[in-house]
Amino acid sequence: MKIEQLLEKYKGLNQAQLIAEGKEAYALFGSRMDRQGYKKEEVVQFATMLARLAAGADRFGTKEELGLFEQITGIDTDKYEFALMTKNANEEEFVRVIDEIVDSLDPATKDGALQFVAVFFAADNHLSEKELALLKRLEA
Question: What is the pTM of this model?
Fold first, then answer.
């Protein structure tokens, strides 16, 4: 799915709708990674890394993003831990690891990752330039 389509799809959704979309995207992403031979733990770890990068793209993880993350993934995360996770999400080494993993995914799985990440950007109904740059990297 193209970035423009995702942004239009998620634009203006309320919290409950974003959670539903996020759960669907998370399940889609997980099933596609499973087909590529990834274990469940690896899917959870990579989804967590994507959420961390998405929430930290603007260098600040919001309580809305934390709430979405917990409700979508079922991973209970304390707000201070989430703040630390997102604070350094743009570090060059972290971004490089994400890029390597994304490059190893087939197009359908990349699409699932893009849908999953886009939900976090929709949490505040604002898309910063850094957030858009991340989506474009995932789309490539």
Answer: 0.80
